[in-house]
Amino acid sequence: MQIYYDADADLGTLGNKTVAVVGYGNQGRAQGLNMRDSGVEVIVGNVQDESFERAVADGFTAMPIAEAARAGDVLCLFVPDEVQQVVYRQELEPHLRAGQTLNFAHGYNIHYRLIRPPEEVNVIMVAPRMIGVGVRERFLAGSGAPAFVAVQQDADGQAWPVALAVAKAIGATRAGAIRSTFAEETEMDHFMEQAVWPVIMRLLTLTYELLVEEGFQPEAVLMELYGSGEAAQVFEEMARVGLFRQMSFHSQTSQYGTLSRGPRVLPDAFKSTLAGILEEIRAGVFAQEWEAEREAGYPVFERLKAEALAHEINQVEERLQEIMQAT
What we know:
By secondary structure, this protein is of the alpha/beta class. The chain contains 16 helices and nine strands. The longest helix has 32 residues.
């Protein structure tokens, strides 16, 4: 594994370049501010909405996306995956020129060839492993959010220097920028979203339902599951000291219960289910399904969201929050 730090990147690579932040949302704002604070010339391309006004309020020169595409040397695409293709085709592609660099924060559209840039353009990825707020907060604190960096297309021999310079400008090389590929980043990210988090969310939901059915107080169940914030602290300690080493912060009763019951709750055979999910991701099955869902106007997605928000756990969460705020 190759990890890049500050000494491996040169901000001077961006010294005579203009970076255009396309999409001033959570990641766009955080990375744009960090790059500007690092001395990089940054402009913003966005539709005329609240994000556009926020960019202006933050002191950026904001303009329509097509204009930013013409003015920028490094174009950072921070618009959502599902609209990225349309933005690229209508606003970026007609204005691309040799020597420009397209920078993606996620590999989805390039990996699945939904966007196919011309050969004379560099295609890179700098993908922080943290939401935008965290990227900004860590930068301001003097540290940074780790990131994956990759080059899909090196048109002029400068793709890697530019990628590392962007990573340094947003603070990623302070923590460590791991050399990766568009395929690896996309497939791992989707696997987390489609295998790991569904298991956690489903387990929490089923646990809530069972314990309430067995007579436990709903608010007490949610407090024990995640409402107290203990679960979040456990994850923080996992990141700090390790998955199993953090167990030493818990009682021996807790450790024994976790270690002895784990294989029964989630048997090794479940790995075959996980392998099936990964196979679908790698084969592009999910990408095809998601594209079809988008083209249909998101009917299944809207139904699933409505069902989730209709679950009684939402009302209990509200009551628990009121109780916690009152104390």
